[in-house]
Design a protein that fits this description.
This protein has helices spanning about 10-30, 45-55, 70-75, 80-85, 120-135, 145-150, 150-165, 195, 210-230, 255-260, 265-275, 280-305; strands spanning about 60-65, 110-115, 140-145, 170-175, 175-180, 180, 200-205, 230-235. The protein is of the alpha/beta class.
Amino acid sequence: MTAINSETDPVSMLECMMLIRAYEEQMAALQAAGSAAGTCTSVGQEASAVGVVRALGNADRILTNHRSAGHLLARGADPGRLMAEVMGRSDGYCKGKSGSLHISARELGVVLTSTIVGGELALATGVALSMQMLGEDGIVACFFGDGAACEGIFHESLNLASVWRLPVLYVCENNQWQAFVHRKETMAGDHVSEWARGYGIAARTVDGNDAEAVRIAASEAVATIRRTGEPFLLETYTYRLRGHFEPDDQSYVDRDELAAWRLRDPLATLRRRLIANGGVDARELDRMEHRVKETIASALAFAQASPYPALSELTTDVYA
């Protein structure tokens, strides 16, 4: 594997979070202009993605969902190739055939992105079992939301992982929204982590808007899995600041709730902390923002210059 990003210092994490935010805002803008297909963003959840992914090792595998850009970029994915993929261009990670909802990047250990709610949960046990049977190093990190946790496959996956003692890090990014339905309408309690204990699986809930807290909790969870060989569920309690799928006016969202969570924006939270403790100053922040803008501009130019797949590619890379 190559190009995997494993830097864990807070300044590096903040810049990666800034890159994820800028990338997703750019893709939303392209969609609004009719230049790209619709996409599901993870704006507001950047701390969860960066904090967890930076706690993983090179041999670890990732299975993710329709809000995958943050996980991919945190792992070291090239923004230009991601954009090209979403825009259906041949220089994308899957030759422009996956769009934003099914991207995989073998060189980064990203096995798949599933747009089927809970689809990654159905496959995480299989990937972990195969790694175990082949004697491979590494664990499986499976990202899903609170909506997927309300699917039957969540319970099936946890049950098998517990019985078979599989090295799976289940990461529930509890962003309070299940498409257009609030979590409180489908869950009796507040935390998915409580459900894991019924299967004998260790679990923890962490502030998903605090990148450093997420990284520490994820590192401890990963260390526990490597030591015991057993699964662990980490719930990152966060909030989706944009709609379910672009475009989305969020007319169904309570304005006061959204405003309250905006005050806890993970980028602003880490930025304030770094300034307060002297970890970064205004000039460095300006340089970081400039680098991010240049990266996104270069990525867009690369994607727009990439050709569409040739007609001869129509039946390649398919099972039947």
